[in-house]
Q: What sequence folds into this?
């Protein structure tokens, strides 16, 4: 358990006993520090996680499964997947385009663009949701026009997708910009001079060079897209079986004192987080391990 | 394919990297671009390749105006200084890239591409390494893969940016000789950039010396070494010593003292001579300097001298057997030298004719 925790949470730490590092702490101090952080992690991360699963399975495996296949839960799962399937590819396209622009070209306002990408990280998700209420609500300029034409943005899937896209904007771009900047443009120039078209150069040279970084960004983006609560909560309208995503569904069940079902759905989200964590660690090892593509 | 560069200029953010450049490279010629860092060598090469667009002027491939062609359409083989191999492709895929990137109608079959790539790898003596990835190769091997990759598209012009820059001296010498042989066999019009003047003199049919975005001289290695067109070229190519002098009534003066040298000239000038072009010893007459040090260079002893109150430094060669302790006074006289006129503020005039004078 301790060793798993070490590799999960401290991928950079050398394995116990294998180190003879040059920092000056005595072994006692080091053991104390490690014990303290493990205790902290156990208390604030592992214990709650364990509690989620314990609650979810408190009425047995059958009840857990039943809570998941119940129609409203299934609809929430379906909506969550739909939102992720739309938001993640959009984020990929935007992230690649922005990273390409930032890393391979010089233009005015580049620094501004790069810091603008971070905006969703610094804005509270609730605000992100409210922005769309202001933009598309009944009191806005285009809201009435849209509803007159039968387009429902708020309290419907489009609004949820928009809010999710907003909060996930930085993930892929943040990952790719430094990577592409470090790789420079000479490989692309070589491909062009060899006669490859711009599009082919992108597909055969640029994309393979950033594929691990892209995957890493997609992974984090996906986790956020499926787990987002605040922004989605504002624009969703909480219509059961219609506009509830998994996190919203959990909240509703919880507010109805249906703890077992709430935790059963929550356990799915927790599983997603764990899988993400494991994949992320694997990818980090790959990204850190020299030139990507060296190992097949 | 003949390459003609006509009045080409290039600015980066209004900072000129190349002033108007004119240069013609004959078909099948091997030309070297040399010059100090920042003189515009890479910029000129990238302009020929189409990786930069000229601010003014045009570039002709034969009779065709290449300035209107895209990078892809120019069909130029470019070898980058740091190889720029595709790191996620095998050596074979790297070399075959140019062929497989052709539009479908012109693309050879997969097997044919592989066959051609293998052939080229044999040509650059890398048979057997097809399956490797670039990080698994040595510097010299990567360089040759880059060359094979550039040759695969049957380029009209081959451009190499400091092809041996990152390699150690021994590998450099081998590759240099090998590149010359390859060039003689394939006959590509080739332009390569180098920091190493020795490399340029040994390898090239023609040496193009650049400084501050201008071409100082473009001529055969012998011409550039024996008759440098400008003071800059004289100082940059080969070893030389320089002395500020004044010529009055056909006689050369250094610090108002006669040197015993005569020249067909009037006014201030810079005098250049090479270490081996000096007669040294008692009775050599003319100039004298205090020995401050010396070192052995292959078969001769090169001695540093300090002249006059201004402590001007020059170097002359002595036979190995002849030793001379620091502090001794040594008389010498250049047997051949060149004068370059000074324009204002003691700067050598850019393109004024030089005078060479030899004494028996
Ligand atoms: N992309 C660029 N943006 C701005 N200035 C540039 C750019 N590329 C080159 N320069 C400038 O143009 C001038 C010529 O550069 P260039 O790279 O051609 O020199 P070089 O002769 O190849 O030098 P080196 O021997 O160091 O490679 C330099 O002053 C350089 O700073
Ligand atoms: Mg350069």
A:
């Amino acid at each position: 358990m301790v060793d798993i925790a070490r590799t999960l949470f401290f991928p950079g730490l050398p394995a116990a006993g294998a180190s003879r590092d040059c920092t000056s702490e005595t072994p006692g101090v080091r053991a104390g520090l490690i014990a303290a952080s493990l205790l902290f992690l156990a208390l604030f991360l592992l214990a709650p996680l364990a509690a989620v699963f314990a609650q979810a399975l408190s009425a047995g495996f059958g009840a857990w499964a039943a809570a998941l296949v119940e129609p409203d839960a299934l609809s929430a799962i379906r909506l969550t997947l739909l939102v992720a399937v739309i938001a993640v590819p959009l984020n990929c396209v935007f992230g690649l385009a922005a990273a390409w622009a930032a890393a391979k070209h010089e233009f005015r306002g580049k620094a501004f663009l790069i810091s603008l990408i971070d905006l969703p990280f610094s804005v509270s998700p609730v605000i992100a949701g409210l922005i769309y209420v202001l933009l598309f609500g009944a009191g806005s300029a285009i809201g009435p026009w849209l509803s007159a034409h039968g387009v429902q943005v708020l309290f419907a899937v489009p609004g949820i997708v928009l809010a999710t896209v907003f909060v996930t904007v930085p993930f892929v771009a943040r990952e790719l910009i430094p990577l592409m900047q470090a790789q420079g443009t000479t490989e692309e120039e070589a491909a062009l001079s060899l006669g490859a078209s711009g599009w082919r150069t992108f597909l055969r040279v640029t994309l393979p060079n950033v594929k691990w970084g892209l995957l890493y960004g997609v992974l984090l983006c996906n986790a956020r897209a499926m787990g987002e609560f605040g922004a989605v909560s504002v624009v969703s309208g909480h219509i059961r079986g219609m506009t509830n995503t998994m996190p919203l569904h959990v909240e509703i069940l919880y507010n109805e004192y249906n703890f077992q079902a709430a935790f059963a759905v929550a356990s799915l989200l927790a599983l997603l987080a764990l899988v993400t964590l494991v994949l992320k660690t694997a990818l980090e090892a790959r990204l850190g391990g020299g030139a990507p593509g060296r190992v097949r | 394919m003949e390459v003609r560069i006509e009045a080409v200029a290039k600015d980066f953010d209004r900072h000129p990297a190349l002033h108007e450049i004119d240069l013609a490279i004959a078909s099948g010629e091997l030309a070297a671009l040399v010059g100090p860092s920042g003189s515009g060598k890479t910029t000129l090469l990238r302009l020929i390749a189409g990786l930069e667009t000229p601010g003014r002027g045009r570039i002709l491939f034969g009779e065709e105006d290449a300035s209107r062609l895209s990078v892809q359409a120019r069909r130029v083989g470019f070898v980058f200084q740091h190889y720029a191999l595709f790191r996620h492709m095998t050596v074979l895929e790297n070399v075959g890239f140019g062929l497989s990137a052709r539009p479908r109608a012109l693309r050879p079959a997969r097997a044919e591409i592989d066959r051609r790539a293998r052939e080229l790898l044999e040509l650059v003596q890398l048979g057997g390494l097809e399956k490797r990835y670039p990080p698994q190769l040595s510097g010299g091997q990567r360089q040759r893969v880059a060359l094979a990759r550039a040759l695969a598209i049957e380029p009209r012009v081959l451009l190499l940016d400091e092809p041996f820059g990152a390699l150690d001296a021994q590998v450099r010498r081998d590759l240099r000789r090998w590149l010359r042989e390859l060039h003689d066999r394939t006959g590509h019009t080739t332009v390569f950039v180098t920091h190493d003047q020795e490399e340029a003199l040994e390898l090239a049919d023609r040496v193009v010396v650049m400084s501050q975005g201008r071409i100082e001289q473009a001529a055969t290695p012998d011409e550039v070494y024996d008759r440098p067109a400008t003071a800059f070229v004289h100082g940059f190519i080969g070893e030389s010593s320089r002395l500020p002098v004044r010529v009055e009534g056909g006689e050369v003066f250094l610090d108002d003292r006669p040197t015993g040298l005569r020249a067909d000239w009037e006014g201030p000038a810079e005098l250049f001579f090479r270490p081996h072009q000096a007669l040294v010893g008692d009775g050599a007459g003319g100039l004298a300097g205090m020995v401050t040090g010396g070192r052995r260079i292959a078969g001769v002893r090169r001695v540093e001298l300090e002249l006059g109150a201004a402590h001007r430094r020059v170097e002359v060669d002595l036979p190995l057997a002849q030793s001379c302790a620091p502090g001794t006074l040594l008389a010498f006289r250049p047997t051949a030298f060149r004068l370059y006129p000074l324009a204002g503020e003691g700067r050598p005039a850019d393109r004024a004719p030089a005078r060479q004078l030899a004494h028996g």
